[in-house]
Amino acid sequence: MTAPAPSAPPALGPLLARGALLSPFKRPRPGAVFSGGRLTLPRLRVDPARSAAYERVCGFPTGADALPVTYPHVLGFPLAVRIMSGRAFPLPLLGLVHTSISLTRHRSLPVTGTYELLVHVDRLAPHRRGTEAVVVTGLRQDGETVWESESTYLARHRTPGRETGQDAGRETGRETGRDSGQEGEQGSGRVASSAAGPLPVVDEWRLGADVGRRYGSVSGDRNPIHLSPLTARLFGFPRAIAHGMWTAARCLAAHGAPDAARVHVDFRAPVLLPGTVAFAAGGGRFELRGTGGEGRVHVRGRVEPVTPAG
């Protein structure tokens, strides 16, 4: 007798543990390749209580009949980790940096809907500081793609012609860690805030020390760098840091997005907890910046409406 297809993503904890155990045996190098790794969850049902808790933690309006624009990433992330924690995946899970996410929501996504979830690693690409894995997530309903995303994860290693001297020094100031590890660095230049003028600050957020623990409880990503100063120090951080995808969700909750929208977010620097950050927005663009000194940019993104086909 065939077992019924699962209707929920796998638990993240065992997958993260497997990835951590295998990471020391993986040596990332230029020219790494990876094929396969496609995973599908054919009849996904959303837990309304969990999605409501996610709304509260991230600042989205509660009680809505539709999923928040970033919530499908939470649904797909365990499948992505299952692929990236496997023996065949050539990059170590520990140390991966979530550098960006681009997503498109084609229409409103009912909380009560039944979906097909698809995740695969599209390619490995050379990067000036190592190798990037491009992970594609799709959500389909009745055979139609209703949400899709592309996330980039960077494994840092020595590369031919890697920057030295002054250029390397500029890069050092933007380092962080991994998403199944530490979030975000790199300004890709895809959101040219400085060229269009500084964005006006519209709000300041005081972030508690428990933000990482609260987001971990609703996303399943209980990575130690997000949970406490003690565990974060093991990975080189003075305090716990916020999940990159929490910062993206919090910004989008404040900014808003139409039912049919295209979103791009760059993760540029970690947000230490507790702390205070400034949310700036205007013209479909947004930033999360530090409040002291030069106002270091932590997150930078944009939201664009999408015209439905037909």
Characterize the structure shown.
The chain has 310 residues and is an alpha+beta fold. It is 24% helix and 30% strand. The chain contains eight helices and eleven strands. The protein has helices spanning 12-22, 48-58, 71-84, 165-172, 193-196, 211-219, 229-233, 244-255, and strands spanning 39-45, 97-105, 114-127, 130-141, 144-156, 182-183, 201-207, 261-267, 275-282, 285-290, 297-305. Strands 1, 2, 3, 4, 5, 6, 7, 8, 9, 10 and 11 form an eleven-stranded mixed sheet that branches. Helix 1 (12-22) runs parallel beside helix 3 and helix 2 packs antiparallel against helix 6 (211-219). The termini are far apart.
Count of individual helical segments: 8
Structural class: alpha+beta
- What summary fits the major beta sheet? 11 strands, mixed
Q: Roughly how many Å apart are the termini? A: 44 Å
Radius of gyration, taken over Cα atoms and rounded to an integer in Å: 19 Å
Overall mean confidence score, pLDDT: 86
Overall form: globular
H/E series: HEHHEEEEHEHEHHHEEEE
- The count of strands amounts to 11
| Low-pLDDT ranges | 163-194
Proportion of residues in β-strands: 25-35%
What helical percentage do the residues reach? 10-25%
Topology:
Blueprint: H1 12-22, E1 39-45, H2 48-58, H3 71-84, E2 97-105, E3 114-127, E4 130-141, E5 144-156, H4 165-172, E6 182-183, H5 193-196, E7 201-207, H6 211-219, H7 229-233, H8 244-255, E8 261-267, E9 275-282, E10 285-290, E11 297-305
Parallel strand pairs: 2-6
Antiparallel strand pairs: 1-3, 2-5, 2-8, 3-4, 4-5, 7-9, 8-11, 9-10, 10-11
